[in-house]
Amino acid sequence: MPGIAVILRLTALGLLTAFLLTPQSFAPVFAPFTQYGAPPIYDQGNLLSLALSHLGTVCLAAAASTLVAVSLGILVTRGSGAEFLPLSRSLVNLGQTFPPVAILALAVPLVGFGEKPTLIALFAYGLLPIFENTLIGLQTCPPALLEAASGMGMSARQRLMSVELPLAMPLILEGVRLSLVINVGTATIGSTVAAKGLGEVIIAGLLSNNTAFILQGGLVTGLMAILLYDAMSAIERRMFKAARID
Amino acid sequence: MIRIENITKRYGDSAVVDGVSMNIERNSITVIVGTSGSGKSTLLRMINRLVEPSQGRVLIDEKDTASEPAHLLRRRIGYAIQGHGLFPHRSIAQNIATVPRLLEWPEARIDARVTELLEIFQLDPGVFAHKFPHQLSGGQQQRVGVARALAAEPAVLLMDEPFGALDPVIRAKAQDDLLDIQRRFGTTIVLVTHDIDEAFRLGDQVAVMSHGKVLQCDRPAALLTQPADPLVTLMTGSADRALRLLSLTSAGEAAIPGATAGISVAASASLRDVLSDLVWRGADAANVLDTEGRPRGHLTVAAILSHGRSR
Amino acid sequence: MPGNFKIDRLGALLTAMGAAAIALLPFVLFKTNRIMPGDPQSLWNVLAPAAAWACLAAVAIAAIIALTLADARVRLAAAVLGIVAVALAVAAAGDALTPAGNKIVRVAPGSGFWLLLIALALLATDAITRLRPGPALRVGLLALFAAVAGMTLAHGTFDNLSVMREYAVSASRFAHEVRQHILLAFGSLAAAVLVALPVGILCHRIPRLRSGILGVLNMVQTVPAIALFGILMAPLGALAAAVPLAAALGIRGIGTAPAVIALFLYSLLPIVANTVAGLKRVSPAAVEAARGMGMTRWQILMSIELALALPVIITGIRIVLVQNIGLVTIAALIGAGGLGTFVFQGIGQTAIDLVLLGAIPTVALAFSAAVVLDSAVEVMDRKPQ
Fold this sequence. Notes:
The complex is a heterotrimer.
Chain A: H1 2-21, H2 27-30, H3 47-77, H4 85-95, H5 100-111, H6 115-139, H7 143-151, H8 156-186, H9 199-208, H10 211-239
Helix pairs in contact in A: 1-10, 3-6, 3-8, 4-6, 5-6, 6-8, 7-8, 8-10, 9-10
Chain B: E1 2-11, E2 14-24, E3 29-34, H1 40-47, E4 55-60, E5 63-64, H2 70-75, E6 77-81, H3 92-96, H4 98-102, H5 107-120, H6 125-128, H7 138-150, E7 156-160, H8 168-185, E8 188-193, H9 196-202, E9 205-210, E10 213-218, H10 220-225, H11 230-236, H12 241-247, H13 251-254, E11 263-266, H14 271-281, E12 285-289, E13 295-300, H15 301-306
Parallel strand pairs in B: 3-8, 3-9, 6-7, 7-8, 11-12
Antiparallel strand pairs in B: 1-2, 1-4, 4-5, 9-10, 12-13
Chain C: H1 9-24, E1 28-31, E2 39-41, H2 43-46, H3 49-68, H4 72-97, E3 106-109, H5 111-131, H6 135-155, H7 162-169, H8 171-205, H9 207-222, H10 225-242, H11 244-248, H12 256-281, H13 284-292, H14 297-331, H15 340-348, H16 352-382
Antiparallel strand pairs in C: 1-2, 1-3
Helix pairs in contact in C: 1-3, 1-5, 3-4, 4-5, 6-16, 7-16, 8-9, 8-12, 8-14, 9-12, 10-12, 12-14, 13-14, 14-16, 15-16
């Protein structure tokens, strides 16, 4: 039933936009979660600007991860980079065992507090799913197609650009989507090192024992992640509606 | 047109193709037949330099193929492979247009060529141009594969087991189509197969390969009547070689003057089919008619049988 | 064979990294107390020339081997030699810079040391990857490494380095937090396995449930960890206030209870999803054959379906365990303890050594869990074939 799904998504988007634009009108909803007359809506900053900078940090990090991860994936699957392939595979596996908080904490001594350590942590954490998917996508390209492409006189570059990358694209985008969604959540931790974002709202709630704040921060982040996931899926479907890789 | 001179491909110490020389006439079909591992695909792939020879050279129109960049060479040579190798992310029209695009033909010329090829291969352009490979049947995909290989009007077409993935009925049709296409465009075709029947059916000249060497390269009939090597006989099969020989001559070619009372057969039918027809109907002779129904002479069982003897 | 001489590209990259680390970056940082910025010191400044040259020689040998030799075993040996030399050098630097009896000055490994260590570790990783060790050998190597690391730490080799100074200050708390960290990660995993396995089987059997349940669990995953921890605080607090028994059982708004529940919720999706995927991979022919041989439904489930799906299910458990070990760090924010306590205290006090005291063991735990469970999956995946 795609109809219902679309309506649900539009409703979610509508609610999110409405809440970010006029948070005070939702005060009655959150009031039951407060005690001792604490404010029901986050009042130490503009929610919309926090959400936007949250999203901005995540997207910037994802763009950087995509660029680096895809380039690396291409590099190690070419003949000249083959010596790096086994190592890079191991690094992908090892890297996934690194908790994001650890990366964040270790980045602080290098670049100080603020946005930078968050960007570094999100960048590093976002690399892995994209790199892994790029590798799988490029390596599982059917040999018959590569053979056909070379046989028709494509140069190595043309083959990469017009056969290998387009065929790997669905997997690459899936990696980007995965890392975006993970990072929307992970970015909240950035507020422990003073990055501007929705984590601020949650941490303010934790500190002042105000569940309404925690709910707001959590729900807005969660909704953003879900909507981002859906938007990416929709773009992917649109791009690859016709073609299918057998 | 193509001259292969003493070509060798070594991987480490083992020679996959070992000192092969071969001449391929213009406008002919040469079939390279052999078991798997005989080096037949490697030999084919050295013609368009998908495999670089360790030794020897290939000349096309007296020009050494090593004298130009491999990818430019390949754009002039059609290449079709088993399982068609169509790009799943591109429409049929885009697939066919691949090499013309690489050659930077004007759009109008590309469109015209794509439409022309689709029509030749009995694929309605209005229906198929914008479909994707996975929406086609196996036989249709195979036809698109050949159409794509012919798109840039290559003088030479290389085919590596092009019909390997097809079932017998579609396969026979695809072979007939290929013969039509070859007559129509006059393309010089080199085709690799492990199927000796296919080799006999398509080849003006058949090269039998084993362990990297060409045992014999000759007209199909000569492979049967003057085998150069016991392995050639083993491969062409000795039990039914008389019938196989009959299948290489058409009724029109073998017809003797005069007419007979009784059944008629088409001039294009092979002697094998005519014999079978006569046995089935209990007749001793048949009139041979050409496509317009004009008499071309007649055939008797005895006359047919004389074509099946080793000479 | 001079014709075959070829410079190894990976070796060249790692050598460049190492050379830059030695030439341009400080090997250790000397701090007058734990939160002061460090005073950079090179290898030459802090070690006796003989010791510095010995360390450099070992690293140079590793570099030459990395550049020229292809045999993975030799490369691994070279990497280990380099790592031992660099580790001993940094320990010696700590001893050399610390005045006897002084507990205030800190000697922290500098960026040069870390980069050098990373280059050598990459060399070792590459060599191990090329050797393709079997699962038993991988676990063996891990155990060996853990034993050597444990012994050197117990022996006090690194006691004059800043991280170990932090450890010395809070040794008893450290043991407690490690235990708490493991308890939280494994406890929530165990609870999740108990629930997720039946749910996964149910989803497999009843396709109509599948998309609904997986959808909800997917949504849970999108709620950021700190928010989920926080959201659970309120109802649990209320529960503790209203039901004395719950409070007596240790359920409170902050601490272990919300942490375990949140981790449990996060753990469900990977295990349910992998159970479904694992069961899906069981060929219908195998189930059909089992039925034909007269197995009961229960027997089919236990000895055919689950047995064949087990590697995929364990892969899900591996994902969860590694994820949980990381997430427990965040649970420190709601007072649940664990190694995250040191990380966040360290961030709060800008004491990097304290951050490392929390971060290094967390990474080590997650890494070990991944190696052990990956090996288990490989053993199981290999057996049926």
